[in-house]
Fold:
Amino acid sequence: MSPLAVSVLKVLACLGLMLANGVVMIWMLRKVLGHLHLRYGPLEMGPSGILQTTMDVLKLLTKEDVMPGAADKALFWLAPLAVFVPSLAAYAALPFSSTLRATSLDTGLLYTFAALSFVPLGILMAGWASGNKWSLLGGMRAAGQQIAYEVPLLLSVLPIVMLTGTTDLGRLVEAQSGVWAGFLPRWFIFDPLLWPTFLVFVVAALIESNQTPFDMSEAESELVAGFATEYSAMKFGLLFLSEFSNHFIISALAVTLFFGGWLLPWVPEGVSASLAPVTFILKTYVGIFVMMWIRGTFPRVRIDTLMELGWKRLIPISLALVVVMGIVIKAMPALARVVG
Amino acid sequence: MSDPRYEVYEAGLIGEGMHEPPVLPAGLRRSPSGVDGLRTEHLVVNMGPQHPSTHGVLRMLVEVDGEEVVNAEASIGYLHRGIEKLAEHRRYDALGTLMDRGDYVSGIMGELAAALAVEQLLEVEVPRKAHWLRSLTSELNRIASHLVWYGTFGLDTGAMGQFLYAMRDREAILDILEAISGQRMMFNYVRPGGVVRDLPPGIDAKIRAFVDGFENVYLPEHDALLGGNEIFQSRVKGIGVITREQALAFGLTGPNLRASGVRYDVRANRPYAAYPELEFEVPVGETGDAWDRYLVRMEEMRQAARLIRQLIDGMPEGPHAAKVPKVLRPPAGEVYAAVESSRGETGVHLVSDGSEHPYRFHYRAPSLFALQALEEIVPGHLIADVVMIIGSTDVMMGEIDR
Structure:
């Protein structure tokens, strides 16, 4: 096959994964939140309502696409794409196994973060173009929020990069293979040196995922529906889909960085390798479940508290962690090698 | 905004000196970015009547500087049904039906206010058992109403789980009230002279089971889930402070007044129904912020559970209603009767001209007073706080618009 055909197929595969993930996650969210809320979630369409999302997609496709008179038409069209495309692009570097990934990038980690950081731009566009005051407030919040969490998010993974000396997501996973003390997988989550890093990463990643308690730009009880207020039909569908896809990517990053990616502990190498994509996706969905759990439980923080958290807490803490890791690597290389 | 202050402000923005900061009238602050000549504008956003957290159909015109509110104006009337005028064409025993549709989440207490007023006009002696049944249903209703407040207050913060947990408990109460009165919300249970019917057999065991579970398991659970959450505490502490003086000046009653530190409760200060015979505490707050209002209402639920226990244990025997004529024709006169509803002093002012219809019927809705206070306390807060403040005062549009 020509390289171009291969690339097109890879993009289509990523798109397929993104759409399938959307369908599965929406159903999962409804079921998880339902059971957290003493409800059942969807029941009617198919067994356990499994076809509900499919029906919703059909509904979204057939709905009237309303464009507000006051909207900036070009931007209003462009915004869902500006959210959707980076979200799709972020799949490129995700390592589903040692070989299965769209592209093997030396800078995979940075690339994924870079792709994700485009999303708030699209949200700001959506908020601005809608010609609605609530949307505008939501978009502005997204813009302000982005700086407050993108910096600590990126800083928080630096200690891992320093420890392993790579930003290639595949090699980051390979660095976690093997076991400590005969039974404990050498995942970074089991490395006490990286626990503070993990905490900062979790908070920053939750903010990135843009859902309760950090769903500032949507905040349905404050801003009606924030940036998405004026969107309907499939444009809304795209915004929604991208959001779910971002959850998948964030959870996949957490799995890659801290939970050994595709690695399956305590089984022979061959089994682990053949199950790699399944392991990776299952681990990712466990992460997504935890995010949904948090979403179903916590109240929302206030926007200024969030900014303070980002600027005054997360950034200094993550900078300090980088310094500490530097000292450990330089001054106590033995310790860094043993645990890292 | 037709306020002349803003015309001055806008003229300053549009006029020749556009690049010079306009002279602001007293009471308006300039945003930091406005000082160095960058033009900033205030944004007037229309919050409601179709907004997820305006608790029905409240409309707030909020003028914001960024996210900070500089001015708020409440606009009401979207749920107006003309209850007061309708009452002039109803017979006296139908007033309760109208009151049910005023504050529709604590209907029993509204009915009771109307019944007390009619009884005062008629000078009927209500049997002791009727008093006790009225208090019992009132307190059950109070918990149900506070649970609605608790749930929607949580929803305002974005927490959804606890709303449905609250609805589960409320459902248990509504089942009990349905067994007692025959209806879930529009009870029409309290009538002039007493109550419609006696307790159905076996209901006391059901109530006891509910109170046991509620007091020991569910209420602590609710309190821990929302009040024990640090995010929630950071959202409500120090927000929407109503001082003692302000609270009195605005005529606040109920939990909103008590949260500001004034110990006034109609049940204790001007007792009615069975309350003189019962033991309960009136919780008060200190600072009058949203957190105090939360604490006061949570404690009120505890006290209501305690009252229900006493009421079930000491339920007297006897008739549940006095004999009153089918068509009530109270002598000409004017009375005011009040009860402590879950939102404050719900009062009924009734003027009779001796006919079978009231000459004038006035419904004192405690939420209306809380709403007036809102306009005063909201400026200076963020938009996110506005919904918290509205939620914390537990305004009920049904009784404001009537």
User: Anything to note?
Assistant: Chain A has a mean pLDDT of 83. The interface with chain B takes residues 33, 36-39, 133-134, 136-137, 141, 212-213, 215, 219-224, 296-305 of chain A (CB under 8 Å). Strands of chain A lie at 179-180, 184-185. Chain A has 14 helices and two strands.
